[in-house]
Each structure stands twice: as C-alpha cells, then as structure tokens.
C-alpha cells in the first residue's frame, strides 16, 4: 500500500470529471487499498479518487468510532 498526495482546493484537477469504473480488477483494488491508507493517515472519514488525482468514480469512507468498518 502507498500513501497518496491529497489535492486541496483550489486545485483545478479537483474539477476533472471522473470516469465510471466498469470492472473491479486488481488495479482498482490496489487503488482502494492506497486510498484507505491515505484517508486513515490524514485522519479523515472519506476520500474520493479525484482527491488523489485519480479521475475514476471511486470513494472510500469509514465513519465508525474506531476506524474498523471501511466502506468502498
């Protein structure tokens, strides 16, 4: 897994339209793993792929009290 840099407003890349994900393959699974690591490191509760400069319709989130229930 790898921590990814998070884009911040007003970065124009955040306005890029994200492409649909047709198939969940190993590449998408790796992206989800990397996004979860990045989100937890940033002490966040959610992250969209666009925020890490990957323009695909992927989100991760975990609103549990102990960060034990990620949702992708």
From TrEMBL:
Query: Does this UniProt record's set of keywords contain ATP-binding?
Result: no
- SUPFAM superfamilies under this entry? Peptide deformylase
EC annotation? 3.5.1.88
Q: Which family does it belong to?
A: Belongs to the polypeptide deformylase family.
Q: Which key words tag this protein in UniProt?
A: Hydrolase, Iron, Metal-binding, Protein biosynthesis
The source's superkingdom equals Bacteria
- What is the name listed in the Swiss-Prot or TrEMBL entry for this protein? Peptide deformylase
Q: Name one GO biological process term.
A: translation
Q: Where is the signal peptide?
A: none
**Which Gene Ontology MF annotations are present?**
metal ion binding; peptide deformylase activity
């Amino acid at each position: 897994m790898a921590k990814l840099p998070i884009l911040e407003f007003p970065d124009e890349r955040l306005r890029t339209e994200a492409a649909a994900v047709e198939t969940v393959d190993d590449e998408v699974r790796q992206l989800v793993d990397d996004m979860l690591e990045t989100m937890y490191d940033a002490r966040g509760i959610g992250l969209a792929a666009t925020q890490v400069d990957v323009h695909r319709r992927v989100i991760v989130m975990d609103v549990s009290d102990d960060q034990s229930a990620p949702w992708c």
